[in-house]
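Pipeline run #58 for the internal structure catalog. This entry was flagged by the ingest filter as a single-chain record with no existing model, so it goes straight to prediction. Upstream metadata was stripped on purpose; only the residue string is passed forward. Reviewer on rotation: M.T. Logging verbosity set to normal.
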Amino acid sequence: MKKLTVEVCVCTQCVLNGAMHIIESIEGLKKLKTQLRMNAQVDVVTTSGLVEGKHPDTAPLVRVNGELIEKANSETVMEKVLSQSVRSVKVQ
């Protein structure tokens, strides 16, 4: 099984711009793992140091398997997680 790491910045700027909502969305997505045919273990890691210095123009910041997403929102992060973790379904 593939392992997917989602790092969410929880500095003040990111929290004020929706970081906690993103974390809640990912946790909800993990509960739907079977229904969505996810073929990955999704680990959510919180950090306050995804990038150096302040980042008010790019908050919230999320990194999915090393790929940084600036001005992230639940939809873009979940889309990235699903695109990297959903098994393809064969049509017969």
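catalog note: The longest strand covers residues 2-9.
catalog note: Confidence is low (pLDDT under 50) at residues 88-92.
status: ready for reviewer M.T.
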